[in-house]
Amino acid sequence: MTNTSFVDPRLELIAAASHFYQQGWMVGTAGNLSCRIPDGSFWITASGRSKGELQLGDFIRMHPDGRIEREGSANNLKPSAETSIHQTIYSLFPDAIACYHVHSVEANLVSGFTNSDNLSLPPLEMLKGLGVWEENPNCEIPVFTNHLQVPQIAAEIEKRFSKTSPQIPALLIRNHGVTVWGKSTTDARNYTELVEYIFRYMVAYKK
Amino acid sequence: MTNTSFVDPRLELIAAASHFYQQGWMVGTAGNLSCRIPDGSFWITASGRSKGELQLGDFIRMHPDGRIEREGSANNLKPSAETSIHQTIYSLFPDAIACYHVHSVEANLVSGFTNSDNLSLPPLEMLKGLGVWEENPNCEIPVFTNHLQVPQIAAEIEKRFSKTSPQIPALLIRNHGVTVWGKSTTDARNYTELVEYIFRYMVAYKK
Amino acid sequence: MTNTSFVDPRLELIAAASHFYQQGWMVGTAGNLSCRIPDGSFWITASGRSKGELQLGDFIRMHPDGRIEREGSANNLKPSAETSIHQTIYSLFPDAIACYHVHSVEANLVSGFTNSDNLSLPPLEMLKGLGVWEENPNCEIPVFTNHLQVPQIAAEIEKRFSKTSPQIPALLIRNHGVTVWGKSTTDARNYTELVEYIFRYMVAYKK
Amino acid sequence: MTNTSFVDPRLELIAAASHFYQQGWMVGTAGNLSCRIPDGSFWITASGRSKGELQLGDFIRMHPDGRIEREGSANNLKPSAETSIHQTIYSLFPDAIACYHVHSVEANLVSGFTNSDNLSLPPLEMLKGLGVWEENPNCEIPVFTNHLQVPQIAAEIEKRFSKTSPQIPALLIRNHGVTVWGKSTTDARNYTELVEYIFRYMVAYKK
C-alpha cells in the first residue's frame, strides 16, 4: 500500500475496491473510487462494473472540467454517475489525491440518526487516525440530502465547503453512503476504514 | 464477471455460489442457481451439493417442460427440489437468463416484517441498481407463503405474476429466502447482492 | 467435500476446522472435531491446537474404550478435554461417522433463551437440511448443563439419549457451544452450518 | 503457529496482524503488536503502517529503557505511539513474550458497560482458554481511562498492577481497545481471539 509514482494508481484503486467489496461496502456495482494524477486529470471507475473484480480497462480518465481524456480511457464506458462529486472535491481541496465513495449499510443507518446537516461522532480513539488529536473531541461529519440529480448534490457540497471546511475529510449523503478524500490512495483507504469503523460503533451503540 | 458466449455458464454459477456461500447465504447445501442457454434449456444446481465447492458435474440440464437433458447432466443426480420455481420464472420472463435463489438469515427475518403479500422497501440509493430511478421511491417486493410442496409455491408465483409484474426482479418466500432473476448471470449476481444489502439494512434499522 | 475411503479423513477435519475457525466458531483453540474409521477407532483433534491451521500431526487416534492407539497418534499430545462426549455420541449412534463440536457466540446466547432441557427452534426451511420435512415443524434441540467435569456432561447425554432420541442430530451445552453428528464428515459439516444458521436467526429475531 | 527459535518472530506478528486486520480489529493502521526476544529487547510495529500488509521493514527494535536498537530497525520509522504500554507490560510481567493491542468495535462498546475500574465477564466456557478453570467463575477485566498522553495510561497500569495482578492477562482502555500478553506469540494470539469472542458475546447479550 505504498504509493510511489512508479505504480499505476489504478492498481491501488483496484486493490481498495476489491477489499471494500469484500467488506460489503461496494456490492452490486455500488460506489466509485478515483485518484488524481500529476497532470491534474483523474482516473475514476466506470459505471456498472463489479467492484470486486475491476480491471485496468474499467477506468475513465477525466479532466477537472469534465472532459474525458481519450488516452487510456476504455471506450464504450460511461463515467460513474457520481463523477461530479469527485470533481467538486478535487476542486475544493487542492491537496486531495484520492477520493473514495462507498455504500455501507451502517453509513446509511447513521445518516438517519439526525435531521441536522451535521452528525456528531463519538469520542473514539480512532478519530486520531482522521487527524483529530484531542481528548474527548466534539467532532461532526457533514450530512447532505440525496438528490436524484447528482450534480445538485455536488453543488450543495461546493456551496457549503466553500464557506466552512469540514473537521474530517469525509461527508455523508443520506441513504447514499460516505465519501472521503486524502493526500494519497493510502490515506483515502485508511480514512474509509476509520469512518466505517465509527459508523459500526454508532449503529451497535444505538441498539 | 463478463458474460461472453465462450464461457461455460456453469462457471459463472460456480463462482457466484462460492461467493454467496462465503457470505452465509447458501450454507448446508441450501439454495440453487440456474442459467438459461440458447436452446432454451437451463443448467441448475443438483440437490444436496455444498455450494461452496461446486464442480461442473454438480449441475443438471433441464428443458422448460421439466425433461432432463442427458447430454452434460451428471448421472445419479436429482435436480434441486425448487426447480419448479426456476421453470416458472423462465416461463414468465422471456428475457430472464439467470435465476438465483439464496437463503440468508436477513431474508428470513424481513419476510416476517409484514403479514401482507408485499413488503415495503426503504428508499435507499441501492434501489437504482435494481432499476428504480426515482427520488424517495415507494418500492415493494412480493412475498409468498412457504408450502411444503414447492410446485404449489411455483403455481402461486405464476398466478400472481401473470396478472401483475413485480416492481423489481425479486420475490421472497416466507422463512425460505429470496429469488432474483436477470438478463445475465452478472445481473442476477448484482441483484442478489443488492436485495441482500437492503435486507441487512432493514434488519439493522428495525432493532 | 466428497467422502471417499481413499482420502485420509483427517484432511476433511482439517478443512472443516479451518472453515469453522474463519467463521469465528473455533477461536482460541476452542472446539474439537472427530471422525470414526472402519476399525471403530476415531481421530480427534488434540488439545490446545489452533483450529485454523491444523496439521495431520495434531490428531489423536482413540478406541471407543478411551485407549489411545499409538499408530498414527502424535506423541506428546493430550486428547481434547471433551473426548468423552465424542465417545458417548459414537456409542449411542452406531451410524455416526463424524462428530463436530464448535463454540459460536450465537450458540452460547441461544442456550440462555430457555431454562428448560429443550430449546424450541423456529420453523425455518433450513430444518429440512437437518431431516425435518414438515410444514411449520415443532422442533427442539436438547440443552445440557455445563459441568466443569466433562465426563459428567457425557454421562447426562448418555442417560437422556438412551431414553429419548433427539429430533435432530445436535445438542447444546449451556455457554459451551453445540455438538452435531452425522453419517459422514460432509453431513456433519452441513449440520454444523445449519444449526449455526438457525442460531443466528434466533439471536437476530430476539433483538 | 508454532513458535520456534528459528523463525523470525516478526513473521508471527505479521501473520497475526493480517488476521486481526481481516477481523476488523486493526483497521486504518490502528493497534500495535510486539514480541520480546532473548536479549530483552522487543520488536514493535512502527506507527502509521497498514496492519493488513506489514513487512519486515515495518518494525522497530526497542530496549526496555526505550532506547531504539539500530540493528534491524527500519530507518525513518517512528515507534508506535503506544510503545510505553508495551514497555510497562514487559516490565511488570517477566514471563510475557508477546503483547498485542487491537481496537475492535466491541471492545470499545463493552468498555462503556461499566463506570468502574473493572468489567465483569460472563461465565463462558471460553474463559478456560484464558486460564480460568472454575465452574461459573466470577471474572473481571481491568478498565483504564484513555488519556491523550499515552505514558499517563502506562503509568496508571504500572501503578495498579504493581499492587494487584489481573485475573486474566488482558486490560481494556476506554474507547481505545484491548491489550493482552502471553508467554508466546501463539498465546497472545489465542488470548486476543478469546477476549474478542467474550466482548462479542457481551455486546450481543446486552441488546
Automatic annotation (TrEMBL), chains A, B, C, D:
SMART domains: Aldolase_II. GO terms for biological process: L-methionine salvage from methylthioadenosine. Its cofactor is Zn(2+). Pathway: Amino-acid biosynthesis; L-methionine biosynthesis via salvage pathway; L-methionine from S-methyl-5-thio-alpha-D-ribose 1-phosphate: step 2/6. The keyword Transmembrane helix does not apply. Its EC number is 4.2.1.109. Catalyzes the dehydration of methylthioribulose-1-phosphate (MTRu-1-P) into 2,3-diketo-5-methylthiopentyl-1-phosphate (DK-MTP-1-P). Belongs to the aldolase class II family. MtnB subfamily. This is Methylthioribulose-1-phosphate dehydratase.
